[in-house]
Amino acid sequence: MACPTHFLCKALRTVGLVLFYYAFSIGITFYNKWLMKDFHFPLFMTLVHLTIIFCLSTLTRSAMQCWTGKPRVTLPWKVYLSKVAPTALATTLDIGLSNWSFLFITISLYTMTKSSAVLFILFFSLLFKLEEPNPFLILVVVLISSGLFMFTLKSTQFNLEGFIMVLLASFIGGIRWTLTQLLMQKAELGLQNPIDTMYHLQPLMFLGLFPLFLLNEGLSVSTTEKLFRVSELSHLLYSLVTLSVGGMLAFGLGFSEFLLVSRTSSLTLSIAGIFKEVCTLLLAVEFLGDKMSTVNWLGFAVCLSGISLHIGLKTYRNKVGNGPMVRNLQVRENPHLELPLLQAKDDYCEDTNDEEEHEILY
């Protein structure tokens, strides 16, 4: 039986990882919203973020290879284009539309609408048979949908164009996370480590978003004094620095999510995500002047109830012995490629006692 000190250390570690995740997740939301006030080129911003994430992923992979002496997985072109491309396209559209919406809507409306992604994830998980049908899922759908309806119905800062963008991003996000789960569960691809997944996704994401950027922002970016027609070098450096900070936050968000799941569990990330949304709304109301009525808060509470019910159902299914509601990973011939980044051998052996701690979060 473990001593109280062990549990205390584990609790403190979990709290630290959650706060680390909050710093990047909440930080990038407010940072992008702040940046969009003066820099009205969300697609160009996303392209810069993708470039930075790819560079940092490449450096991280090189560091991991030097540290372990083990080669990182690199997919052949045929497999890369056929297996990774659909996930990359869905991911880039999700991120691009989400950033684009900041030009039109408040953070509170963005946060609430983005919560509807759970509905689309459920739909595509059932469609791809990643999750078993459950009558309680109907109640989950009703609660989340009702909460979203109540929030938008009485919203005094509602913008239809931005709302449609986020809703479309949530729909594509359902496809994105379902395809990501399928991609990471294909043991023969060797992309169980999200750093490797991020490395392979970014180039195709960049190519997928670039035509849309040229169509909507290409001419404007070429003629703006903030970038390519800059009159003073200081203005250009300011734009590049602010964009680079956002890119590092985006990479940090992906890294912190992975670190939280690998050291705790996907359930911890899901629960932390609920409280993160509450914190985001409170901060938006307090510091950005977002207005929320009693009906808005009630709708948000109803939506979170649906998300919480979904998490509770997944946990119950695991505890009663029916196994996880998603398919398990197969064992690879090179198991070192599957070990989570920065996770020590002793921690890995210790954490395998809990089944839910190695469930893929879709």
UniProtKB/TrEMBL annotation:
Predominant location category: membrane
Pfam families: TPT (PF03151)
Keyword list, A-Z: Membrane, Transmembrane, Transmembrane helix
Entry's localization field: Membrane
Sugar phosphate transporter domain ranges (all copies): 15-309
The keyword Isomerase is annotated on this UniProt entry: no
Keyword Aminoacyl-tRNA synthetase included in the entry's annotation: no
Protein name, as recorded: Solute carrier family 35 member C2
Organism: Danio rerio (Zebrafish)
